[in-house]
Design brief:
mainly alpha, 2 strands, Farnesyl Diphosphate Synthase
């Protein structure tokens, strides 16, 4: 998910931050068990948001942790969540996402990127295959292919391309749920997906503009350096997506899961907005002055 979906740790209680890290370690352990020993090479902290959101639907009795050692931290035991359905689901989803993202990169990037990706291709392919979930894997593959088609056609609308990634994450968040739970989780994933795609395009604007790579904002603004007004327009659109996520989160059945709720709200209100602070920068005219 490009590193956008993380909390601001300084604004979390100690127990909340410990739970956040324990969830990450739980996902890592689940990947090793269910998608291959080395499949966790692509794991990122972004995965925790999905695990936390899905953990709302896991019984209290299945949410627990104990201190363990691992290869990454062999000297000191760390709190790690015990396996539960939300962690296993997240592990499988990220194995599938990583594989198809890799395939997408191989198709679109240059020779050097393809060479760098080559060593991990068998690991990601194996992880995706072990993850199973053929229905969701097919959906992810098709959505990423549709995004690729629009990008190669140099689609001028950021919203049109971002909507496809939103639909992808909407299904990821809602898969296997029904009724109002499915609707709420789909909306959360949908707006998060749109946010991620547009924020990533905005952050890569200058590098893509200079390299001649596809970027919907570069096409929208004619390949010129972004002005302060342009930046604020993009930021307002991203804030609206955050509002969409917020509306969905307000309807999530947290019950007494206050720790999970507080972490999720931290990510939405503080984490996401802090990651787009680069849009508050000055334009080229300001720099000259």
């Amino acid at each position: 998910m490009f590193g956008y979906v993380k909390p601001v740790p300084s604004e979390l209680l100690v127990k909340e931050y410990e739970f956040y890290k324990a969830t990450y370690c739980g996902i890592c352990r689940a990947m090793k068990k269910h998608t291959g020993t080395l499949s966790n090479v692509t794991l990122s902290y972004d995965s925790v948001f999905l695990a936390l959101a899905r953990m709302i639907f896991v019984p209290d009795s299945d949410i627990g942790a104990r201190k363990r050692r691992c290869i990454a931290h062999p000297l000191k035991r760390r709190p790690m969540l015990n396996s539960n359905d939300a962690l296993v689901y997240t592990a499988r989803v990220f194995a599938i996402l990583s594989y198809y993202k890799m395939r997408d990169d191989v198709a679109d990037e240059g020779v050097m990127k393809k060479i760098l990706i080559t060593p991990v291709r068998p690991i990601l392919r194996h992880g995706s295959k072990k993850a199973g979930m053929c229905e969701l894997a097919t959906l992810i593959r098709d959505k990423l292919a549709a995004i690729g088609d629009l990008e190669r056609a140099r689609c001028e609308s950021p919203d049109e391309v971002a909507a496809l990634f939103g639909e992808l994450l909407g299904e990821v968040f809602a898969f296997g749920l029904s009724g109002s739970d499915r609707l709420v989780m789909y909306e959360c994933g949908y707006h998060l997906g749109k946010f991620i795609y547009c924020a990533d395009a905005a952050e890569d604007y200058e590098s893509d503009r200079k390299a001649g790579k596809y970027n919907p904002y570069v096409i929208m603004y004619g390949g010129e350096p972004l002005t302060r007004e342009n930046r604020q327009t993009v930021k307002c659109a991203l804030i609206l997506e955050c509002k969409g996520i917020e509306a969905a989160v307000k309807l999530m059945p947290f019950g007494n899961r206050h720790t999970i709720e507080n972490i999720i709200r931290n990510i939405i209100y503080l984490g996401l907005t802090s990651r787009i602070s680069f849009l508050d920068g000055t334009d080229e005219t300001d720099k000259k002055d």
